[in-house]
C-alpha cells in the first residue's frame, strides 16, 4: 500500500510538471504555471518527508537491507 502511495505522488508530480509546461507553451499564462510549479514543489517535499518517515518506521527498506 505504501508503494502505491509513493507511485501515485510521483505521477501527480509529473502531471503538475506537464500542466506547467502546457501553460508555458500555450499562452505563457504565468499565474497558472506558477501555481502548477508550486504544487510540484510541495508534492516533492511531501514525498521526501514520506520516504524518510517510511524508512524510519520500517515501511520501506533502502537497498533491501
Number of domains: 1
What class would the helix/strand composition place it in? mainly alpha
Order of helices and strands: HH
By DSSP (H or I, 4+ residues per run), the number of helices equals 2
Q: Give the overall pLDDT as a whole number.
A: 89
User: Regions with pLDDT < 50 over 5+ consecutive residues?
Assistant: none
Shape: elongated
In total, the number of strands is 0
Radius of gyration: 15 Å
The profile of the biggest β sheet is:
none
Helix content class: over 70%
Q: What is the oligomer described by this structure? A: single chain
Cα distance, first to last residue?
20 Å
Beta-strand percentage range: under 5%
Task: Describe the protein's architecture and organization.
With 65 residues, the chain is mainly alpha-helical. The protein has one domain. It has 2 helices and no strands. The protein has helices at residues 2-26, 30-56. The mean pLDDT is 89.
Tag the structure with descriptive keywords.
80% helix, 65 residues, mainly alpha
Quick recap of the structure?
The protein is mostly helical. Helices cover 80% and strands 0% of the residues.
Question: Helices and strands in order, then pairings?
Answer:
Elements: H1 2-26, H2 30-56
Helix pairs in contact: 1-2
Amino acid at each position: 500500500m505504501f508503494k502505491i502511495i509513493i507511485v501515485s505522488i510521483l505521477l501527480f508530480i509529473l502531471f503538475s510538471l506537464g500542466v506547467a509546461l502546457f501553460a508555458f507553451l500555450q499562452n505563457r499564462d504565468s499565474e497558472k504555471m506558477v501555481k502548477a510549479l508550486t504544487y510540484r514543489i510541495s508534492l516533492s517535499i511531501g514525498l521526501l518527508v514520506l520516504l524518510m518517515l517510511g524508512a524510519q518506521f520500517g515501511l520501506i527498506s533502502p537497498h533491501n537491507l
